[in-house]
Amino acid sequence: MTTKEEYIEALERMKESYYNLDGCMSAMNKFKEDINLLAGLVNEHFEIKQETNFEHYKDEILECCIDHLAVVKGIPKPCSKTDCNDCDFLTIQKDCHEIAKEWLKHPYKKQPYKLSQFEFDLIQTYRDCHESCKFSEFKQLIELKDKGYFQCVDDNTKIQDVLANCEVVG
Q1: Which of 168, 156, 47 is closest to 115 using CA atoms?
Q2: Residue range 67-89: average pLDDT?
Q3: Ranges of H-type helices in 25-153
Q4: Which of 34, 36, 45, 108 could cross-link to 51 by cystine, CB 3.0-4.6 Å?
């Protein structure tokens, strides 16, 4: 299967060819229309579907919580091992089972990366990198991770995702 990036690269090559056409206005206009059409199709085809809580946590739910589900600070836990006062469902006046079913249908909200001020300042220096750049592509970041920094960031995480979902702690 062709990836979105490959489609986009092909479109960029087409765009470059467009600018090198011999100057025939009707041919250039048609070429530009075709590129816009293809760009729309690519974006439509690769539309990102919002992940639900169930999709994100299904393995944990099936392992530990299939009978009774509790949620503490947004993370599924077994109801039998959770104090009701700690459960996120306590604030709503409904049957816990019904609340759990509703929660599973909600979109998954990614928990923010918790970074020290130093980690935040450092990763900010990568803010202009391409949106597909991953943490593992930067030797300096990997070496710092080996020394104990950025422990909450997976190596395959995109830099832009960290920047969009981080908070400074401590």
Answers
A1: 168
A2: 81
A3: 25-45, 53-60, 96-105, 117-124, 139-146
A4: 108
- CB neighbour list of residue 63: distance below 8 Å, 6 or more residues apart: none
Report the candidate in 77, 84, 82, 79 with the shortest Cα–Cα distance to residue 57. 77
Residue located via tokens 């530009």: 32
* pLDDT tens column, 102-144: 877 888 777 788 999 999 999 999 989 888 889 889 999 999 9
pTM, full prediction: 0.44
Under DSSP, the state recorded for 77 is E
**Residues 163, 51: Cα–Cα separation, whole Å:** 20
pLDDT per residue as tens digits for the range 7-58: 777 777 777 776 766 667 766 676 777 777 777 777 766 666 677 888 888 7
Read off the amino acid at residue 170: G
Best CA proximity match to 76, nearest among 56, 91, 93:
56
DSSP class of 95: -
Domain boundaries, the chain: 4-45, 53-105, 113-168
Contact assessment for residue 105 and residue 50, using Cβ atoms and an 8 Å cutoff: no
